[in-house]
Design goal:
Number of helices: 1
Order of helices and strands: HEEEEEEEEE
CATH superfamily: Calycin beta-barrel core domain
Strand content: 35-45%
CATH class: Mainly Beta
Number of strands: 9
Helix content: 10-25%
CATH topology: Lipocalin
């Protein structure tokens, strides 16, 4: 009887544990992206970005757009796949000084009030990790929720 009870207890624990189901990773909640963000750091093609150039810029995220306001304004339609880990994002330029239409694929991750986004240029495949390399035509930015 004791052995049967122990077996059932182990079976219950294994059933409830998220081993290999993908449930052990936190899924991105798109609603938590909504708001205003400030740049903290960045990289372009493996080189650090002088973030001072972005100190007055504001990134505003709605449920389906990202707007970058600085010296120039860029508006992008945002399509998220929050079920992937990390979540993927497709950005389609709708307004910019260069015109609409450009597409970038990337990954995005939210941790508290810190947001990371890494994306490729010109409809290339999304990066697999949050880093860039020389000649990779990728950008990485870390943002903090504006207070």
């Amino acid at each position: 009887m004791r052995a049967l009870f122990a077996f059932c207890a182990c079976a219950l624990v294994l059933t409830l544990c998220p081993f290999g189901t993908g449930q052990d990773k936190k899924q991105l909640d798109p609603g938590k992206l909504v708001g205003k963000w400030k740049y903290v750091s960045g990289e372009k093609d493996g080189a650090k970005v002088d973030i001072v150039n972005y100190k007055d810029d504001v990134v505003t995220i709605t449920k389906d757009t990202i707007t970058l306001k600085g010296k120039e304004t860029f508006v992008m339609k945002m399509e998220l796949d929050a079920k992937k880990s990390p979540a993927t994002v497709k950005l389609t330029m709708t307004e910019s000084p260069f015109g609409p239409g450009a597409i970038s694929n990337g990954i995005i991750e939210l941790s508290g009030d810190d947001l990371k986004i890494c994306y490729a240029h010109s409809d290339a495949d999304a990066p697999k990790e949050f880093k860039t390399k020389e000649g990779g035509k990728q950008h990485l930015f870390v943002l903090k929720r504006a207070k």
